[in-house]
């Protein structure tokens, strides 16, 4: 049995779940379900990233205890399991005790490799991003993602990670794995970042300035920088370092990440893995979506569309379809209520929903012959390459063809005039609908079940009600 370990990034809990993360966790969910269906053993990890300055300040501002703040926020992400019907196997929080211990052990391993050292540190730091910014990343001295916040100047003694030592090893990693990062333009981006020369980066903060973090082993005056501790979740979630049997079973991971995380995931994390003596990740899928900072979406609709609000309007599978089909892999997603509603009516109410109700209505007098159904190879390849929007387009072309086939052949007239031809037409539609149900199973699990049941019982409810 093949093993398949997939993980999302851990969203930072200073805000509630937004549609960008919904896309990421839905993509992971489709891949996890797809591999389970094909008989693989799957471990699907997600969770929340809870340390760092931004969370600390936010909880202070609200005047609630930091642990309670984290508990509440984390729950809103955990609940996506119900809200979007996500099939994750593990939900890790970076405040979990086993994770904190793993992060400290990980630090010790990197230190043992001679890759951690202390030096004076003076840098511009964007609290909004929780990231250091070089002058070239700032526009008019401000972070382009957070133009309303002035970057802070930090000067203190910090621990550094010897990133520069890993330049050649990273370039070898990319050269030997042409699909290590997908889409390929993102691999090219990270390669040229590494080629230009990489600098050691800070991996700690002074505890008296920022107490909400994992303590550095052997130096209680420092806590780990939030990125360093959070990344370790990809290995601690599967048992590292205590349960090495479990770890060996699942590692390496297929990781998903937003394009803003490209360098952290595909370069920095890979270097610290090498330093800790762990093999590299298996593959990294980089997403692109507008709305991660709520900017473009805010302009068009006044506020951010949340996954929960979408579910109220479009149902669980309707929401899954809309987010997955808009989020064309690696491309930015530009969304609004109008666009979603239009697509819902066209593709779901008039498209799939209409096809199902027409075929079922016509089928009462007809006995189908079942035949073997297999997943189309082209479709499979699209899913494997994470081209999920295109995979859905492939199926929806079929749905449009079948709706046209019904209009062209008018089976309701054939039923009165030519029973043999009626039988042929209905048999084709029956097989097509079965195929469609099978292909959308990982994308829209409940709808797939309903279609199969409707074909069996020859009756159906309205799957997708038209929305005004
Ligand atoms: Zn920023």
Provide a concise account of the structure shown.
By secondary structure, the chain is α/β, with parallel strands linked by helices. 51% of the residues lie in helices and 14% in strands.
Give an overview of the whole structure.
This protein is 51% helix and 14% strand. With 468 residues, it is an alpha/beta fold. The protein has a domain of 121 residues: Isoleucyl-tRNA Synthetase, Domain 1 (Orthogonal Bundle), CATH 1.10.730. Strands 3-2-1-12-13-7 form a six-stranded parallel sheet, with helices on both faces. The chain has a four-stranded antiparallel sheet with strand order 5-4-6-8, with helices on one face. Bound molecules: zinc ion. The site of zinc ion (ZN) has 6 residues, from loops.
How does CATH name the architecture of the domain at 337-457? Orthogonal Bundle
Ligand names: zinc ion
The description of the largest β-sheet is: 6 strands, parallel
Low-confidence stretches: 290-302
What is the CATH T-level topology of the domain at 337-457? Isoleucyl-tRNA Synthetase, Domain 1
What's the Cα radius of gyration? 25 Å
CATH superfamily of the domain at 337-457: Isoleucyl-tRNA Synthetase, Domain 1
Strand content: 5-15%
Topology:
Layout lengths: L2 E5 L11 H19 L3 E8 L4 H10 L3 H13 L1 H4 L6 E4 L3 H16 L3 E11 L4 E3 L18 E10 L5 H10 L4 E2 L1 H12 L5 E2 L1 E3 L8 E2 L2 E6 L1 H6 L1 H4 L7 H7 L3 E5 L3 H14 L7 E5 L7 H7 L5 H20 L10 H26 L14 H8 L3 H22 L1 H7 L1 H21 L5 H13 L11
Parallel strand pairs: 1-2, 1-12, 2-3, 7-13, 12-13
Antiparallel strand pairs: 4-5, 4-6, 6-8, 9-11, 10-11
Helix pairs in contact: 1-13, 6-7, 7-11, 13-16, 14-16, 14-18, 15-16, 16-18, 17-18, 18-19
């Amino acid at each position: 049995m093949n093993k398949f370990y997939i993980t999302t990034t851990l969203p930072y809990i200073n805000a509630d779940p937004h549609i960008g993360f919904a896309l990421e966790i839905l993509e992971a969910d489709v891949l996890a379900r797809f591999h389970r269906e094909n008989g693989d053993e799957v471990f699907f990890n997600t969770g929340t990233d809870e340390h760092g300055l931004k969370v600390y300040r936010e909880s202070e501002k609200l005047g609630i205890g930091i642990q309670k703040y984290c508990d509440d926020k984390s729950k809103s992400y955990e609940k996506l399991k119900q809200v979007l019907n996500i099939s994750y196997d593990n939900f890790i929080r970076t405040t979990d005790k086993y994770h904190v211990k793993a992060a400290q052990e990980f630090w010790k391993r990197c230190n043992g490799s001679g890759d951690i050292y202390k030096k004076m540190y003076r840098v511009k730091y964007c609290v909004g991003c929780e990231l250091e910014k070089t002058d070239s990343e700032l526009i008019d001295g401000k972070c382009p993602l957070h133009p309303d916040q002035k970057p802070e100047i930090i000067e203190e003694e910090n621990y550094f990670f010897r990133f520069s030592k890993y330049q050649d090893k990273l370039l070898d990693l990319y050269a030997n794995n042409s699909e290590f990062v997908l889409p390929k333009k993102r691999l090219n981006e990270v390669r040229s970042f590494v080629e230009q020369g990489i600098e050691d980066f800070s991996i700690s903060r002074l505890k008296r300035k920022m107490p909400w973090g994992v303590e550095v082993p052997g130096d209680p005056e420092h806590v780990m920088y939030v990125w360093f501790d959070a990344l370790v979740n990809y290995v601690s979630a599967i048992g590292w370092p205590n349960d090495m049997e479990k770890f060996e079973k699942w590692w390496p991971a297929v990781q998903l990440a937003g394009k803003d995380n490209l360098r952290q995931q595909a370069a920095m994390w890979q270097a610290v893995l090498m330093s800790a003596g762990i093999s590299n990740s298996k593959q990294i899928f980089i997403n692109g979506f507008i709305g991660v900072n709520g900017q473009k979406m805010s302009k068009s609709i006044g506020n951010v569309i949340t996954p929960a609000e979408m579910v109220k309007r479009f149902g669980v599978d309707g929401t899954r379809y809309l987010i997955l089909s808009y989020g064309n892999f690696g491309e930015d997603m530009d969304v609004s209520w109008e666009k979603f509603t239009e697509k819902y009516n066209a593709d779901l109410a008039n498209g799939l929903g209409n096809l199902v109700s027409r075929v079922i209505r016509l089928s009462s007098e007809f006995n189908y012959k079942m035949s073997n159904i297999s997943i189309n190879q082209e479709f499979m390849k699209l899913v494997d390459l994470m081209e999920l929007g295109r995979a859905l387009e492939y199926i929806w072309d079929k749905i449009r063809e079948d709706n046209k086939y019904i209009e062209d052949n008018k089976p309701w007239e054939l039923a009165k005039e030519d029973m043999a031809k009626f039988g042929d037409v209905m048999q084709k539609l029956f097989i097509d609908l079965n195929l469609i149900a099978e292909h959308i199973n990982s994308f829209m699990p409940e709808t797939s079940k309903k279609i199969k049941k409707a074909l069996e019982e020859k009756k159906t409810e309205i799957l997708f009600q038209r929305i005004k």
